[in-house]
Design a protein that fits this description.
mainly alpha, 121 residues, single chain, 3 strands, elongated, three-stranded mixed sheet
Length: 121
């Protein structure tokens, strides 16, 4: 499957409009983006999508594939590390209410703890 492609939307989809250039990223790029978020700061998934689109020269980034790629990036890290040891600070994008927590079996309290630890250090 090709990675990092731009597609012109032929119909409205999610929060995107027909004719917009939609970027489709990759799990690796999502992980790289998260690693670039400064310590103690956060970004929303929507902000991440906007930033990825801008970097790729597109207008929008696909919310569906970005959500899947976010989950895949987190799963890859959690196969080898505990959250506290994670080299991928995914709590900078994933808050306590994010739907991916349930899919990953993660507690909202753990995300809140990681965010608090970063902001107080």
């Amino acid at each position: 499957m090709p990675r990092n492609i731009i597609k012109i939307l032929d119909k409205d989809f999610a929060d995107m409009k027909k004719g917009q250039a939609m970027y489709i990223s990759s799990p690796e790029e999502v992980a790289s983006y998260i690693q670039g978020i400064p310590h103690g700061t956060t970004r929303t998934p929507k902000e991440m999508r906007a930033d990825l689109a801008l970097q790729a020269g597109a207008e929008v980034t696909c919310p569906v594939s970005t959500g899947i790629f976010l989950r895949l990036a987190i799963e890859d890290v959690l196969k080898m590390f505990s959250i506290e040891e994670s080299p991928l600070p995914f709590w900078r994008v994933v808050d306590e209410k994010h739907a991916v927590l349930k899919k990953l079996g993660l507690s909202p309290d753990t995300i809140a703890k990681m965010r608090h630890l970063e902001q107080s250090s």
